[in-house]
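User: What would this chain look like folded?
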Amino acid sequence: MRSDTEFLSTAPLGSPKESDPPPLEARRSATLPVDAVEQTGAPKTTSYKRIIVCCDGTWQDGIVKKHRWQYSNVLKLARCLNHEDTRHDPPIPQIVFYQSGVGTETNTAATWLEGATGETLGDKVQDAYAFISQNFQPGDEVFCFGFSRGAYTARMVAAFVGEIGILDKSQMDHFADIFVAFQKRGKTDDPQVKAECQKILAPFNAGNSKGIVRANAAGRLFSLKCVGVFDTVGALGLPKELTMMTAQSIFGFNDTLLGPHIERALHALALNETRADFNCTKFQQTPEGQSKGQILRQCWFAGSHSDIGGGWEYHDLSDVTLSWMAANIDDILSLDLEYLNTLFNPNSPWGAQLPHNPKTGVFTLAETLNRELPKPNDLITHETIHPSVRRQKVMIPAVEQLLKDHPEIEWKLLPFEEAVEKTWPFIPGRNVPAGQEATDEVEAQTSEEKTLKSMAKTALEPVHKTTTLHEEGGRPVNVRSTSGSWLRALLGRTGK
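Assistant: Here's the prediction, encoded as structure tokens.
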């Protein structure tokens, strides 16, 4: 039985030691700001490292993937993290933990059982938290990243850090009891059960508890540096026809509220995802988080669920979201951006790739639910729409109108994103990859294009027609309007 986690080497690509797990290095020192220098001229130093947990999505296992295009954005991000941040003197160590997604057993039956029930999701949460606990020392910075249900896992881990801080190794003996009490408290409406759960949690979530004191020992405002996720779905994220339980029967986790202990939260969201059981779970900022200067950025992109988190052979859209995430963390983590650029292998101009139809394969009969549109100027969700959406051949009509009515909702590209757009390595006329998976992708993209055109036509009908009475028979007829003719011409350029 193989392990579903790995320590990732972040040595440069091609290094003889690339496949070796990084050693548990001695703690390093990082220089404090200039105003902290003593009168002797010697800088005061603080010892800390960065602990980065990367949780992959359902059926995503980067450890056994044979091709780069199969990598999710979580794996790509994990592998482009440098071993240390040399922008500081001395450098800051970066320890990376990659965790494969739910449903990645080598046994096919076990894989589908895990994926359909989410039965190991609790184990994923505990393993990720245990890694932090095992390696954390007061003053360290903690980061959590995830995709799909891995994003749910990352957010649960972050929630535990907010609830109980970071337990030391000896306290981890109690984590199973804490986990169960945490679940029960969230699921029940019975005051007595809630009180019993809180009694179990009290020694660990009190303000002076050991875990909370450890997490905040450095005197920082935030105990968790960053949570970055790609299209979070709930605990299951599968069609109810395939599952054996509901998300509510697994966890009592309020995963919408963004804990005020998190300094920065980043969320890439899919505009073209229509499966009801893959509905996104947006962050909602609390007044306490706002007052502390917490950063929340939630950006919408063209594409369905896996177009955001990666895994398709045609991965142009997920490369755009990966670039966005990298641009938003480059100031707080050291990334190998040269390696990241080698992962781009586009089949279309920047932002122009057609989204994949999410309702294919086992999801063909999945219940449909259109996602709620982003809210302009919402100080709770802080949503934007990425400018790459404008490059789509056919845009969702409501999104196009939203951008027209509220131009301020459009995300402003960061320097790394601008560089990626400028140097996007698209080669016109490039041969389509051979193989059944590539063929399936083309079918999924063609299907989604037809869906978008149908939506555009439906939205167009009330605009390009007006209802009047026929002069002779009093029969309602449709008369074309000027604006409708313009829209019809625009639609015609995309094909029927």
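The radius of gyration is 24 Å. If you want, I can go into more detail on any region.
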